[in-house]
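Input chain follows. Return structure tokens only.
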Amino acid sequence: MRDFFEHQQVARRNSILLGLYFLAAVALVVSLVSVTIYVMFSFEPTRIYDSATPFNLNGSTWNYSAIGKIAGVILFLICCGTLYKYIRLRSGGGGMIAEMLGGRVIYPDTDDFHERRLLNIIEEMAIASGVTVPSVYLLAEERGINAFAAGFSQEDAVLGVTWGALHYLNREELQGVIAHEFSHILSGDMLINIRLQGLLHGILVLGLLGQTILRGAAHSSSRSRGGAGAAGIGIGLVLFILGYAGVLAGRLLKSAIARQREFLADASAVQFTRNPLGLAGALKKIGGLDNGSRMRSPHAADISHMYFGNGMAESWFSAFSTHPPLQERIKRLDPVFQGSFPERIEPVAIDREEALAYVSAAGGLPREHAAPDSLVSGEDLRKAVGTPNPAQLDLGPELIESVPGALLSAARNGFGARAVIYGLLLDRVKEVRQRQLAALKRDADPQVWQEFCRLLPDIDELQPELRLPLVDLTIPALKTLSLPQYRIFRNNIRELMESDGRIDLFEYALHYVLLKHLRARFIQAGKKLVPVNSMAAAQDEISCVLSLLARYGHDDDEAARKAMMRALRQFDERQRKYFNYQPAPLCTLKEFDQALQRLNAASIDIKQKVLAAALECIIWDSRITVREAELFRIVTEALECPVPPWLTLTETKPQRPNAPEGMRP
């Protein structure tokens, strides 16, 4: 199976091919429309009496400058349509698409059994795969079994699930569907899907314009007998026919791309869950349900390529279907399938014990408290990068169940989520903690302060390996804050971090993870960085990142240099000459942060090598601490490569020193 980087390479190639195909389609449409309109304007009625065609079809006498101007206008209209759709989708993100289909947000603290079961599955998969816990929308009016993932990136990704999927699928079947959608998030399919939608809208603009002109010209010709009305009808008809012909060609392209991606997503879901029959069971229920996977929303056709199942009526021509045949998908998952679907599909009965477990605020499995520098196998983490597997899916529920029940419940609402984050930032030094508590009591929302006081004992006893997973669980609830609430929250975080005059590694990691995932919701996108396409262009940034990683994980400069030399083996001999070890004064957390921002604009090939080198750097001694894993998490977040949590905890070793004082992100 492909790993994360291979998926990203495939997504990039698909994007390039998509662009080329679209350019070819646009060129053909523009050429046909331009030439046809020019020929229509060359109509000469007097030639009818000369027994000749009334159109001037002699190419040698054509005015190619006029044709070029017509083509420019047509191309401008297509570009405007594409840009308008893209900007509109960009501003609203995945949430706008879900709302367009009639979806409503499922709040993280819901106590509805079906919604709670869905959110539990999504939380487990997000933690296990290293993906941000996405916002979830319920399409309450859709009785068919379907789902989709939408967004421009993992930060603004949303999952939409229909009422039918929520009520007709059991837990294993729903888990298979969600794993399928997570595969689309990990493989970069969401961005391709949105680009497809924007590109098709650009061509569709011609057809819509043609419709408008036809109506206006028909109305005009009914009131007068002039030739203007006839000319308008002709132009409108040309735009209408060729515009919709272009859309038809685009949908053929969309269907071809979408069908192959559905097979890949099915295979990835099975790899992740180890349960092909769960996914096959969901597909069989689609086949046996009267509504199948049909979507009734007026906007359903706009994103038909994003659905788990074919959301539209079956096409007469399979070439136009955005999904492979249902029976073929099932056969790949369940080879003994004979082609018969269940005759009657009933909603899944609520399991009373399961329901009590979902809605109870109590819980949390007892587990031995681990020391701050518990060890994790470097080989486990190396295998985990970019390739979610069944062992990690098992770890997701284990980590979540290990969180004290009060913290787990609090993380799922806006007041509790803020209280949890504040608690994680409290210092162990008494004098510093007193200043932090006084500031929180003064500045925090009264209800948040009340929650904070209630949760503080559990937060103080929280195992260190559960801190960042708990932060991940708070993100959906924090996204529901208003902008003023978010600003107060952000200011309080900064004050807590700076209360002791320095920022340690965990504070930096928490701040980085939170801001990165909330930025898409509350902060406008910053200036786009210049792409980095060569190792030479990124030599200073890569040197800084590897130097800090090596120095942080080792007690002396000599050991740090050796660790970095080990990391540089990930690059070929020609590339190694670009990099050098940077001493502490030249590479603080501030420079580290700037370097990561720059590397975020690097190509997939460069990111892959940097991550491999970073991992080698911190596992030079074959084992790494939880705190080193947190530092590696920052690198993976910055480079947008999801990494599952570490897997194996063993005995402890002496605590490593904190990051040097005075460093600021």
